[in-house]
Each structure stands twice: as structure tokens, then as C-alpha cells.
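Figure 3 (text version): C-alpha cells given as input.
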């Protein structure tokens, strides 16, 4: 099954770029980075650490975001010429080319609350916003 806006909630989220657009904890709003781990109730996001104002080191820190208390915006990988649902540039940590407009999907975190293996097994209509 190819990764599309309609099937996002039934796919593996690790490796996707996300941004927290709403959260019950206001300090989490605006968190942006790559999903590196998923549990039943949380997403762990690698966020570039920009403490000194320049991103020269590109060090990252891990932020755990509760799924149920947040709304996420996922950037879908573009140009999956191999049909795998993955973009080689995105998988390598490189932003997509400027001419390949990425697609963004907003998802209520409540629909993601489940063991990742169980969530990806679900069939039926997608419940994304």
C-alpha cells in the first residue's frame, strides 16, 4: 500500500517529518523534526538543537510528544519513483527538491493512539482530518 494522505494513519510513521500544530502543552506547539520512535501513546521527534542561533553543528535532541494531546502535520515524501512510498532524498535526511511540492497532512493525534503494529494493521476508511 502506497503512502498517501488517505492511508497515512495506517503506515509506519518513523522517518516522516512532522510539526506539532496544536497541543494541550503550549511548549510543544511548533516542535518540528523527524519521527525516530513511536510507542502506543507518544511520538519521539529528533529536533535540531539551535541553542546558539546557528545550525552549524546540527546536533539534535529528542522530544517526546503525547499523541492524544496534540495535532500533527506530517510531510509526505515526494517523488517515490520506485513505488516504495519513500523518497530517497527524504530518507537520507535531505529536504525534497524545491520543485517537488511536498504534500502535508494534518492528523489528530487521538487517531494514532494504538500500538504501532496494531495501528498499521487496521483497515477501512482513514480518520485523518
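Below: residues designed for each position.
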Amino acid at each position: 500500500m502506497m503512502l498517501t494522505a488517505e492511508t497515512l494513519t495506517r503506515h509506519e510513521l518513523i522517518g516522516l517529518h512532522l510539526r506539532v500544530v496544536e497541543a494541550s502543552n503550549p511548549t510543544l506547539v511548533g516542535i518540528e523534526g523527524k519521527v525516530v520512535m513511536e510507542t502506543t501513546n507518544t511520538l519521539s521527534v529528533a529536533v535540531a538543537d539551535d541553542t546558539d542561533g546557528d545550525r552549524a553543528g546540527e546536533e539534535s535532541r529528542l522530544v517526546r510528544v503525547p499523541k492524544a494531546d496534540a495535532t500533527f502535520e506530517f510531510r509526505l515524501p515526494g517523488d517515490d519513483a520506485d513505488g516504495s512510498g519513500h523518497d530517497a532524498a527524504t530518507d537520507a535526511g535531505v529536504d525534497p527538491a524545491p520543485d517537488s511540492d511536498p504534500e502535508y497532512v494534518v492528523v489528530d493525534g487521538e487517531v494514532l493512539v494504538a500500538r504501532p503494529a496494531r495501528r498499521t494493521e487496521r483497515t477501512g476508511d482513514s480518520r485523518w482530518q
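The domain at 8-121 is CATH 2.30.30.210 (SH3 type barrels.).
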